[in-house]
Amino acid sequence: MQYFRGMVACICVLGVAWLGDTFVSGHTKEIKDFASQTISQYPALLAVVFFLAAMLLYSQAATAKAITPTVVAALGISAANPDNAYMLVASFAAVSALFVLPTYPTLLGAVQMDDTGTTRIGKWVFNHSFFIPGVLAIVFSVAFGFAVCGIF
Hints:
Helix content is 66%, strand content 0%. It is mostly helical. The longest helix has 22 residues, at 5-26. It is globular. 24% of the residues are buried.
């Protein structure tokens, strides 16, 4: 039975990745509009917008590519007005929220191939082994980013 774990993980990865990509591809405009409206009204929520977008887009690069131009326009950042550019740097660690939903392929592979049974997904969507350490790492990284940007 242990020989089939890798194959089951592959099927999980392909199926869930396809499902997630299909959902996000159909709602990209709404995600960008939400980011633009939120950041223009509440600039301090930039890290939250990055976090939510990365959670849905499953890619740090895709999140940065989709959200950053929208955020730059919403904050009015330009070469002549770089005042709010520090917020992009300080909040960028939040694009690492790929693990939040238990649909990320690496997370599913880790759960499926763990022989000890300690890596698992709980009864609720946000109840898995990667959630608390990952969220804490992002929170501390963003806080550290703002602290360092405040110094310089």
